[in-house]
Amino acid sequence: MNKPILAGAFALTASLALVGAALAQSAGGLSTLRGASVEDPVAVEQVFQQETQRFNREYRQQPPLIPHSIDQYQIDLRANQCLSCHDWTNAGDRGAPTLSMTHYLDRDGNEMDHVAGTRWFCNQCHVPQANAPELVENTFEPSTGR
């Protein structure tokens, strides 16, 4: 007896929510953040510049930022172009920083001669550094090093 009543109440609530959303849209109460409909192309101006000098890290264990463009880099299941300079076998010849040894440990902590699969996609932790405006207010203060 309770299940049919509960199912009816749920259906009524869902229906009212949909009707309310439709009324809000038709009343003009909703607007987009970009100021145009989804179908309209919106030109975006260049709002940041790639920085080539190295930024300081703001907290302990922060992944280093990338001081160069990676727009044309291939990073997928078969290839990782970052390793052509940053792998331990190439870094000395190329003058590039070597990957941390943590990148060569498997899930069980065993050392390997190749980058671990859990560290293969560099840009899931490392991002190109840029002097870009804040999207939201930021009150973060860097570590004091103590």
UniProtKB/TrEMBL annotation:
Cell membrane found in the keyword field: no
Amino acids binding heme c 1: 68, 82, 85-86
Positions annotated to bind heme c 2: 103, 122, 125-126
One GO MF term attached to the UniProt entry: metal ion binding
GO CC aspect terms: periplasmic space
Pfam families tied to this protein: NapB (PF03892)
GO biological process entries: anaerobic respiration
Keywords: Electron transport, Heme, Iron, Metal-binding, Periplasm, Signal, Transport
Keyword Metal-binding: yes
Compartment(s) of residence: Periplasm
Post-translation changes: Binds 2 heme C groups per subunit.
Known partners and oligomeric status: Component of the periplasmic nitrate reductase NapAB complex composed of NapA and NapB.
The protein, known as: Periplasmic nitrate reductase, electron transfer subunit
Taxonomic placement: Bacteria, Pseudomonadati, Pseudomonadota, Alphaproteobacteria, Rhodobacterales
